[in-house]
Amino acid sequence: MSCIKIKKISKFISIAANVASNTLPNITDVQKTNFSVDMNNFEKIENWTPCDDLIVQCKNSNYAVVILNTPINFSTNQQFVVNLWNQAKVRVTVNGGTQRWFQWLKINGQEFQEILIPDIITGDMDSLPNHVLNYFQKSGTKVIVTPDQDETDYIKALRELNIYCNTENLGIDIVYVMVDTCGRFDQMMANINTLFKTKYIFQSVKIFQIASSSLTWLLPKGYNAISIPINLRKNQEWCSLIPIGAPCNVISTGLKWNLNNTKLEFGTLVSTSNTYDGSAVVTIQTDGPVIWSMSIATMI
């Protein structure tokens, strides 16, 4: 490795240290960093604190919750789910996800009068029983039928959520999408594809897919700083960088197996089953979007 490249990597590590100490570097300094791949046109560091946001959800209600038609596997921490739902600024159930939510409340003995109704039910309604639809509709939920079969109910629901927020003048910063594995690989891939498409719907809203033991979202091209709770670091919980869609070159700090201007690509290297080196912040610099997924099993 040349001396020039070593100096540049050292500069990025210095930037990561500043992020970890909550002192961001001067943006001009970030823009001057230039690696062997074309990464020199980034304007800012994108800070991600989804775990912190989940823990202190009651202090920040500027988020929406969307429930898709997948199992709701939060049986051990029911209050977490109830709080996440009730504290949201907007609540959306999507097609059969409405029945999933209805059944989850009944099975777990939740009192319906203590649970806020969905603000919106969307979808083509092909997997939602009439008695469940009628129950919520009579309770005041707005029902929006989206029959277009060229797109998934998930992406259509996000469009309707955006329209609803704009119409009602509701500002949101985050959307938590409750979506667990359901045995359908094609649907899992469709859900990931939706993460790539959300940039055409929301300008500055972060979308997180939350399952019973994991949190997944799309890191954009550029510098990303992810806050890692101490219990996840101590327990060496897993994390992954997955280059779905196209190859990307990545430089990281804070991981047990860091990437040093490494090309991630299916058929060569994919960084799954990674973990943390103990740092409070993981930094990811990438020349293309990349999926980040992390365990939250010991957090909720």
UniProtKB/TrEMBL annotation:
What GO terms are given for molecular function? Answer: ATP binding; kinase activity; thiamine binding; thiamine diphosphokinase activity
Q: Which domain of life is it from?
A: Eukaryota
Biological-process GO terms, alphabetical: thiamine diphosphate biosynthetic process; thiamine metabolic process
- Please give the catalytic activity noted in the UniProt record: thiamine + UTP = thiamine diphosphate + UMP + H(+)
- Signal peptide per UniProt: none
Listed GO cellular component terms?
cytosol
Q: Which SMART domains match?
A: TPK_B1_binding
Recorded hits in Gene3D superfamilies, A to Z, give:
Thiamin pyrophosphokinase, catalytic domain (3.40.50.10240), Thiamin pyrophosphokinase, thiamin-binding domain (2.60.120.320)
**Which Pfam families does this one have?**
TPK_B1_binding, TPK_catalytic
Q: Which family does it belong to?
A: Belongs to the thiamine pyrophosphokinase family.
- Any idea what job this protein has? Catalyzes the phosphorylation of thiamine to thiamine pyrophosphate (TPP) utilizing UTP and therefore links the biosynthesis of TPP to pyrimidines metabolism. By producing thiamine pyrophosphate, a cofactor of the mitochondrial pyruvate dehydrogenase indirectly regulates pyruvate oxidation and lipogenesis. Although it can also catalyze thiamine phosphorylation using ATP and CTP in vitro, it does so with significantly lower efficiency and without physiological relevance evidence.
Quaternary state and partners of this protein? Homodimer.
Protein's name in the database: Thiamine pyrophosphokinase 1
